[in-house]
Amino acid sequence: MPSEETPAKWESLPSWLLTQTAHHAHRLVADGFSSVRARGYHYRLLATLEASGPASQAALSRGSGIHVSDMVATINELADRKLVERTPDPADRRRNIISLTAAGKRQLRRLEKRLDECQDELLAPLSPEERQRLTELLSRLLDHHNPRTGTAEEPWS
Fold it and tell me: What is the C-alpha to C-alpha distance for residues 38 and 51, in angstroms, rounded to an integer?
């Protein structure tokens, strides 16, 4: 049995360290978003709309990585708060086009500010160069194990 001064072998495994760090990162981000009445899906949808412009629910699902089964509820939550608006697609009246409102853009700025604060808190012990290198290494690992051909498993719901 390892002593209290000697960590167990598994505590130095990259998979263990990544998992523990991911749990901490998820909590920080969830708490940060919660402080401005939001969830990760809200951020992802608002950011996707800002980047790509008005879009159908299916296109937003593909662009944001939010599963189509979660998309309607997410849009409903944002529409209820007047952060997005739904209008019938003139090309196909059975389909809606979702647009970002001015209030949605303001909320997106708040979420980006909270997200930046969460990143700073998570990465506090690292220098700017170390932060950049860590991001590069994590991106490389993720690209290897989850090519961007589909949607990623994402805890930011």
Answer: 19
